[in-house]
Automatic annotation (TrEMBL):
The keyword Nucleotidyltransferase does not apply. The gene is pgm2l1. InterPro entries: A-D-PHexomutase_a/b/a-I (IPR005844), A-D-PHexomutase_a/b/a-I/II/III (IPR016055), A-D-PHexomutase_a/b/a-II (IPR005845), A-D-PHexomutase_a/b/a-III (IPR005846), A-D-PHexomutase_C_sf (IPR036900), A-D-PHexomutase_CS (IPR016066), Alpha-D-phosphohexomutase_SF (IPR005841). CDD domains: PGM2. GO terms for biological process: glucose metabolic process. Residues 37-180, 211-316, 327-439 form the Alpha-D-phosphohexomutase alpha/beta/alpha domain. Its main location: cytoplasm. One of its GO terms (molecular function) is magnesium ion binding. It comes from Takifugu rubripes. The lineage of its organism: Eukaryota, Metazoa, Chordata, Craniata, Vertebrata. PANTHER family: GLUCOSE 1,6-BISPHOSPHATE SYNTHASE, PHOSPHOMANNOMUTASE 45A. It comes from the Eukaryota. This is Phosphoglucomutase 2-like 1. Its cofactor is Mg(2+). Belongs to the phosphohexose mutase family. Keywords: Carbohydrate metabolism, Cytoplasm, Glucose metabolism, Isomerase, Magnesium, Metal-binding, Phosphoprotein.
């Protein structure tokens, strides 16, 4: 019989299950109660509501018990160092869930085991949690957020002691610990009031915010110029947590505060004024920002997503309309900016040997092109900023400097003192870059084209196909791996020679002397990257959360090849051939989608 968990004390979620039982909705009950959440690229993330597959009081308590058990095993000094806990402004009335309540329950579980808790007293940007983990020397951090997901969702994001989000094997081990003790340990685990009375609870907000803003000055290179900047900036926090923090970041850089979009300035868990709380969606969700910018004669719009770890940027075009930069385009600008300013301060050619930039495998190769020309080092990681965070930590431990890292989904990190993407610091850095270019009689888009004319245009295109049948997906990738016979990958695509193949599912990489991929093997999903003779790079990968195959293609053109319309046509033709030749959409009943 499918019934509420006997320990469930939340009347709203208990009532949800009882209502489904009374209505005989067995399929809904099975979906909610017969499977558990698992850690993906952004931690645990699911709709709020009743059931083990959803975010609610009970699943957060269970997850925290498992986290505590694993931390106890890994850190004998857990009761000395404690954990950091933060939360965004999400909430759902019908399930009685809010990020703040779930953060307090997370704290209650830890406090019930006499673990010190550094719980922020109000909502904070996601980057504050990994930053606080490092500054306070905590063993771990938890951020209750679903970032830019729909309003129905929430999440539980875990950071390791180095300040980077957990990855394998920690994620698997924590889930095993969760499964071992599903019963709440005591009534104390349900007492969110415990955070108000326990002497083991501290509020790190003032100290962390002050320290963060002090370290932010390391990314500011032209404060005197900023103070004289005539440009106006509009900022939208997308009904999330970013408003106050972006204002402080601008002041730290010497700017006047950006003009806030009034309808979106204050936290609102319903995201009332946007069709989707994801600024990556472009002009369709930046409408209010652009209208305000037109009214205020502000040429730059900055939009942080609801938990302020990602940043979208739009610029008024010279003729009419607005240019919304892709994540790859912003990365080209930020990579150029960070290296140029670093180089000005480090004229010794030898210094560049210990400088790195990082990006994920599905992001633009523009940083790799910069690295070849400028002499610094470039590395790729698996998709997800958690891999970037851990690699930054490793490189820093070896005495290296990581100037800039990014992922194509508008996630940027300037510097390396936070080990996760950071929309707050990125907003201030973009403003300073725009101000500097203005004094050179340039705008962001003009500088982007100067970069592309110098290093070659890097044009990207993303698409995906929907496939509701997992065996079909496995069959598609098996065919690719045996395209020309057993163990033989395709030799051409669209008539162009493939020079390298990397398959992180099997650990194969034809570009390496030993044919072994330097990236971690990921057997739980499919991901194959093809590098072609003429500058095309393409990656096919499955989604960990949705029934789709994602396709990423980039044309890394040679400098001087500046006929953008022709390059875009060639890229479009290549993407179509990639789908047709390798995925066979019609034969496999796949539904095409373009992003």
């Amino acid at each position: 019989t499918l019934t509420p968990h006997p320990a469930e004390t939340n009347p709203w979620t208990r009532a949800q299950v009882q209502s489904l039982v009374a209505a005989g909705r067995q399929d809904d009950l099975r979906k909610r109660l017969c499977c558990r959440m698992s850690f993906g690229t952004a931690g645990l993330r699911a709709p709020m509501g009743a059931g083990f597959s959803r975010i609610n009081d009970l699943t957060v308590i269970q997850s925290t018990q498992g986290l505590h058990s694993y931390l106890s095993r890994c850190f004998p000094d857990l009761r000395d160092r404690g954990v950091v806990i933060g939360f965004d402004s999400r909430g759902q009335e019908e399930s009685g869930c809010s990020s703040q309540r779930l953060a307090k329950l997370t704290a209650a579980v830890m406090l019930s085991r006499e673990v010190p808790v550094h719980l922020f007293s109000t909502f904070v940007p996601t980057p504050y949690v990994p930053y606080a983990v490092q500054k306070l020397g905590a063993v771990a951090g938890v951020m209750i957020t679903a970032s830019h997901n729909p309003k129905e969702d929430n999440g539980y994001k875990v950071y390791w002691c180095n300040g980077a989000q957990i990855c394998s094997p920690h994620d698997r081990e924590i889930l095993c610990c969760v499964e071992e003790q599903l019963e709440p340990w005591s009534s104390s685990c349900w007492e969110e009031e415990l955070v108000e009375t326990s002497s083991l609870r501290t509020n790190p907000l003032a100290d962390i915010s002050r320290s963060y803003m002090e370290e932010l000055t390391s990314l500011c290179f032209h404060r005197n110029l900023n103070r004289r900047c005539p440009l106006k900036f509009v900022h939208s926090s997308f009904h999330g947590v970013g408003h106050d923090y972006v204002q402080k970041a601008f002041q730290t850089f010497g700017f006047a505060p950006p003009i806030p979009v009034p309808e979106q300035k204050d936290p609102d868990p319903n995201f009332s004024s946007v069709i989707c709380p994801n600024p990556e969606e472009g002009l369709s969700v930046l409408e209010l920002s652009v209208l305000l910018a037109e009214k205020e004669n502000a040429p730059i719009v900055l939009a942080t997503d609801p938990d302020a770890d990602r940043l979208a940027v739009a610029e008024k075009s010279e003729g009419c309309g607005w240019k919304v930069f892709t994540g790859n385009e912003l990365a080209a600008l930020l990579g150029w900016w960070m290296f140029s300013n670093w180089k000005d301060a480090h004229p010794d050619p030898e210094d560049v040997q210990k400088v790195y930039m990082l990006s994920t495998t599905v992001s633009s190769k523009i940083l790799q092109t910069f690295a070849r020309e400028k002499g610094f080092k470039f590395e790729e990681t698996l998709p997800g900023f958690k891999w970037i965070g851990h690699r930054i930590h490793e490189l820093a431990q070896a005495g290296n400097t990581v100037l800039f890292s990014f992922e194509e989904s508008i996630g940027f990190l300037c510097g390396s003192w936070v080990l996760d993407k950071d929309g707050i610091s990125s907003a201030a850095v973009v403003a300073e870059m725009a101000s500097y270019l203005y004094h050179k009689h340039l705008n962001l888009n003009q500088q982007l084209h100067i970069i592309y004319q110098t290093y070659g245009y890097h044009l990207s295109k993303t698409s995906y196909v929907v496939c509701e049948d997992p065996p079909t997906i496995n069959s598609i990738f098996s065919r690719i791996r045996n395209f020309g016979g057993t163990g033989s990958y395709p030799k051409t695509c669209s008539g162009i020679q493939i020079v390298h193949v990397r398959d992180v599912t099997t650990g194969y990489d034809s570009s390496q002397p030993d044919l072994r991929s330097v990236l971690p093997v990921m057997k739980s999903s499919h991901m194959i990257t093809f590098t072609l003779q003429n500058g095309f790079v393409a990656t096919l990968r499955t989604s960990g959360t949705e029934p789709k195959i994602k396709c990423y293609a980039e044309y890394c053109a040679a400098p001087g090849n500046s006929d953008v319309s022709r390059l875009e046509e060639e890229l479009q033709s290549f993407m179509a051939a990639l789908l047709d030749e390798f995925l066979e959409p019609e034969r496999n009943n796949l539904t095409r989608r373009h992003i």
